[in-house]
C-alpha cells in the first residue's frame, strides 16, 4: 500500500500492564519497592517451577531493566511462558513488545484480545484499540479502518478524551486515502461512492476538533486537504494550526513554499516557516534548518552571514558539532586577521628550509603547493585564482624542502601579512608560523580549509 504523506499526525500511545487491581503479592511488593536483589532471589526458583506470576514479574524486570539489564527478547520469552499459563498481564505486555516493533500489529492484537478475555479490561481495551489502528495503517484494510475509526469515535464521545478524537480523525483519513488510491490505481471495476464516506467522516470530525480549538485536529484537517491536493484549503488550516502553536502546521506551510504547492515557490518563506516549526521543537524542521545553514556557510567567510547562522542555530539549540562547524569559519577569519599583524614581524627572521607536515595523508614524493592568501574569502578559490608562494615535490620522508627562490617568496608572503595554505591532492590546510628554538621561522599544520 502507498504510504501516507507525513503531514498527517496521529497519537500512538500504548500502556504496559503494571499491577492488578487486587492487593499485590509479597513477590510483587518486593518488585514495586525496588528491592530487586531480594525479588530476583525469590522469583527465579518460582519461575523455574513455571509459576505464572513469577514469570510475568521477571519478564517485566527484563522489559523495563529493573534489577537486570534490559533485554526485550528475554522479556518476550518470560511473558510468553506466563501467557501460556493464562496470565493476563503477560499477554498484554507481550502484545506491547510486539507492537513496539518486534512483531506485527495483528499478532499484538491477538495478545491484547486474550488479555481482555482473561479479565484485563484496562489497559487491554486501550491497547487493543491502538493495535487495530496500527493494523489499519499497516495493511490498509478498509473494513478494519472503518471499524476502528468508529471505535475511537465512540470512545471519544463516551470518555470526552480529545486524544481519542485525534486518533479517530487519523484512522478515517487513512481509510479515505485508501479509497482514493484504489479509485485511481485499483482494479477499477468497483464503483467508488462520491463523496467517500471515510473522507466525509474525517473532515466532519477534524472540523469538530478545530471548533474546539484542538491544535492536532486543526492540523489534520489541513492534512486532509493537502493529501487531496487542495493546497489553498490546506494552507488555511495549517495557518490556523500554527496560530494554535502546532509545530507540524508550520512545517506543512514550509513544505508548500519549498515546493510551490498552492503558493509561489519561495525559498525565503520556506526557510522562515521551517525556522518557526523548529522553534516549536519539530525535529524534522530543525534538521532541515541545520542542513540549510551548514550548506550556506560551508564555503563562506562572510562574518555577517556566519554570525547570523550561529544566532539562528543557537536559538534552535543545535548540536555542538553543528555550531562548531560554523564557528570554525569565523575562527579562520580571526586567525587571518592576527596573521596579518604578526607575520610581517616574523618575516624578519630566517626561514627553516625544511618542513615536515606530519599528516598521514601527506607522504613521500607527494606533489604540493603553498598559496599566499590575503583574505578569507579567497580560501575556497580554484587553484588558478590563487597566488603560489612555493611548490614542489616532497622528499622520500614526506618533508618539504624550500630552495633559495622558495625561501625568498615565502618570506615575502609573510612580510605582506598573507596567510599560507599548504595544498596537496584532496587537502588544503592553513599553516601557523612561529620561531623555533634556533630562532628560525617554522611552520605547522593549523586547520583544514573547506574548498
UniProtKB/TrEMBL annotation:
Coiled coil: none annotated. InterPro entries: ISR_Activator (IPR052748), Sel1-like (IPR006597), TPR-like_helical_dom_sf (IPR011990). Residues 1-19 form the signal peptide. Keywords: Signal. This is Sel1 repeat family protein. It comes from Pseudoduganella buxea.
